Amino acid sequence: MKNKRMKIARVECELTQEQLADKVGITRQTIGLIEAGKYNPSISMCIDICKALNRTLDELFWPLE
């Protein structure tokens, strides 16, 4: 499942994948894989991404019903 909400939040914050990766301390490739739904990040990585994008876990990672 693609993570479109994370990509939208990143774009709204005017961040590239590279810039977000730098803020979180991971690689750009990892951000791309998460957005593509091909990588399942740890809860700690999810929290770091949420902090960098000023969003909650629910907003970015909780499945929609």
Write the layout of secondary structure elements.
Elements: H1 4-12, H2 17-24, H3 28-36, H4 43-53, H5 57-61
Helix pairs in contact: 2-3
General description of the model:
The protein is mainly α and 65 residues long. It has a single domain (4-61), classed as Orthogonal Bundle (434 Repressor (Amino-terminal Domain)). Helices cover 65% and strands 0% of the residues. The chain is built from 5 helices and no strands. It has helices spanning 4-12, 17-24, 28-36, 43-53, 57-61. The longest helix is centred in the last third of the chain and has 11 residues, at 43-53. It starts with a helix and ends with a helix. The mean pLDDT is 94.
CATH class: Mainly Alpha
**Terminal residue distance:** 13 Å
Instruction: Find the CATH superfamily.
Output: lambda repressor-like DNA-binding domains
Rg (CA only): 10 Å
Strand content: under 5%
